[in-house]
Backbone:
């Protein structure tokens, strides 16, 4: 069974009344709840846990890590970021959500600024599936509509995705690459845009479906352990 660790900064929900009304239990509990319903083994970890809840032993038992953060990216210890990065290179899946685009781990893995345009005005977002045969689009219609969203617009300063699964259109006119697949080492990384903290977006069934699909896609496979360095010919001397 795929084991998922759902990581959340968990500050807005405790500090901001408006957010607490939308996610009284914390975003991590909502995400862990619907992933658990889908059959994944889930646990949660938050910024204020010791080592941000991402100890070596937790990561040993993690196939896929999901990441939601926003206002406290800088408080994530570099040592933990490096630990997570090594795990991803070794095959652990990483699903980066919404404002996680500016997390240390995502920027580190992408190597670019990961900057973008934004505007908070409760605009409608339409996420068009542009790769219908992709496993992350499984069970999804031609598009998913989020009735009220924060706008993220291009340019999104990330490397060209290996596969782009969703492109978003916003009421105000912008577009955005909102479902981006990457591989780093043996690990798979998916960036998924929806999830601003003042709208109940993670309670929307289609969004839950995509996050679950992404976890399934990002789960490690039992591939060969690569060897490096000076090498004798496999065909014999
Ligand atoms: Zn946001």
Residues:
């Amino acid at each position: 069974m795929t084991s998922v660790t759902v990581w959340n900064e968990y500050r807005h929900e405790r500090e901001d009344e408006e957010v607490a009304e939308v996610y009284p239990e914390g975003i991590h509990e909502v995400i862990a709840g619907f992933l658990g319903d889908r059959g994944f083994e889930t646990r949660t970890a938050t910024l204020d846990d010791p080592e941000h809840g991402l100890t070596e032993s937790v990561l040993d038992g993690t196939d896929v890590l999901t990441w939601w953060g926003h206002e406290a990216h800088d408080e994530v210890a570099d040592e933990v970021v490096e630990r997570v990065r090594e795990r991803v290179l070794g095959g652990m899946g990483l699903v980066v959500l919404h404002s996680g685009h500016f997390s240390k781990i995502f920027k580190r893995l992408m190597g670019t600024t990961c900057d973008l345009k934004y505007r908070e005005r409760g605009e409608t977002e339409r996420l068009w599936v542009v790769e219908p045969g992709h496993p992350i689009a499984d069970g999804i219609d031609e598009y998913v509509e989020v009735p009220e969203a924060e706008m993220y617009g291009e340019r999104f300063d990330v490397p060209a995705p290996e596969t782009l699964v969703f492109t978003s259109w916003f009421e105000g006119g912008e577009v955005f690459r909102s479902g981006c697949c990457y591989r780093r080492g043996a690990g798979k990384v998916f960036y998924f845009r929806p999830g601003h903290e003042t709208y109940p977006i993670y309670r929307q069934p289609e969004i839950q479906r995509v996050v679950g699909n992404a976890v399934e896609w990002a789960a490690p496979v039992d591939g060969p352990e690569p060897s490096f360095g000076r090498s004798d010919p496999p065909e014999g001397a």
